[in-house]
Amino acid sequence: MNKNYKPETVCIQAGWEPKKGEPRVLPIYQSTTFKYENSDQMGRLFDLEDAGYFYTRLQNPTNDAVAAKITALEGGIAGMLTSSGQAANFYAVFNICEAGDHFVCSNSLYGGTFNLFGTTMKKQGISCTFVNPDASDEEIEAAFQPNTKALFAETISNPSLVVLDIERFANIAHRHGVPLIIDNTFATPINCRPFEWGADIVTHSTTKYMDGHAMSVGGAIIDSGNFDWMAHKEKFPGLTEPDESYHGIIYAQKFGKMAYIQKATAQLMRDLGSIQSPQNSFLLNVGLETLHLRVPRHCENAMKVAEFLESNEKVAWVNYAGLSNNKYHKLAEKYMPNGTCGVISFGLKGGRDVSVKFMDKLELAAIVTHVADARTCVLHPASHTHRQMTDEQLLEAGVAPDLIRFSVGIENAADIIADLKQALSAV
Ligand SMILES: *Cc1c(COP(=O)(O)O)cnc(C)c1O
After folding, report:
1. Which residues' Cβ are closer than 6 Å to ligand 1?
2. What is residue 111's DSSP assignment?
3. By CB atoms within 10 Å of each CB, which of 33, 73, 165, 181 scores lowest?
């Protein structure tokens, strides 16, 4: 595909590029396996000598077409789909960290990722130090150890809505010879392309804006191809030393800039599964075709809702980086000049109990765990997604106990505001 196409064209045209007589629309390759003509052809696939499909636990053509579209949107070199955003973040780190390794992560983080990194991966012997993303370079760099293998953060954190200074984080990571991994779920490549600011690897929960319709859970990992694994050979033996489970191939040598995604596919997917089902990636692709239309509308509506909330006397505080008085407005202007996302957080005067009561009065906005889809929805993280965290951990993660996460959909903004108005007048 033409490399100069703009994001709108990429959303529609990238990925599936049919040749003569092939279906115009991306087909669902609903097949676990793929046929070959002789034993040698199949053998070469297992030696990673030829590229090709053999089993859908590792790779599937429907998935690869959709991964190629997201890769094009992010301006990366290679990508893969996973069964969920959780799987994407796990693989992104586990692909370069093993037992005894360590990584550094922003503490403004999705609750699921916080549990994965802080508890589950710790049981596997991979430790993580959480840092305040607004701390000074010195404070963040103090968290690095000789066995540190990555720096991780979210572009716009869910649900605390902290906007990351991506360029600064990339510089910190690179000073320590490790890649910066960015979870770009909330911004999407329509509003921010972290590779342009020095990030090395991007992950997504495609469950959110990319799918956009709350139809399928999924994830993606995209590599910029920019991190030089061989230049830090001793840090990343998984990529720079022979893989005994593949007859001693060295990924970084054999696949060059494609090494990271090749390893994640050939090794992690082979051994752990967690691939996206082709049905789900087909639906994801339908969502991606309108991502460029939906994201600006989400932002436009969210801006109107944020302004309304700010002017309402029952509202104690509003956090939305689009507001000019927001702590992260300047960073948002730098990294996301066209808008941030459709998610707003706010608290009501009277605290936690009033916030919960208010949510129960909403009619249009539905209480769901989900966030970032076409329908307006709402959640109280302290009672729901972040329920496992102590009040202290909540505050550390920037999630106030009274915080309401309001995900503004693409309905008519006046209807969303009217719903908020009636629920506010009832508390
Ligand atoms: C939802 C979410 C995840 C987890 O993704 P799932 O698809 O639910 O597994 C990870 N990161 C962020 C920022 C999210 O919002």
Report:
1. 84-86, 89, 110, 112-113, 154, 158, 183, 185-186, 205, 207-208, 217, 219
2. H
3. 33
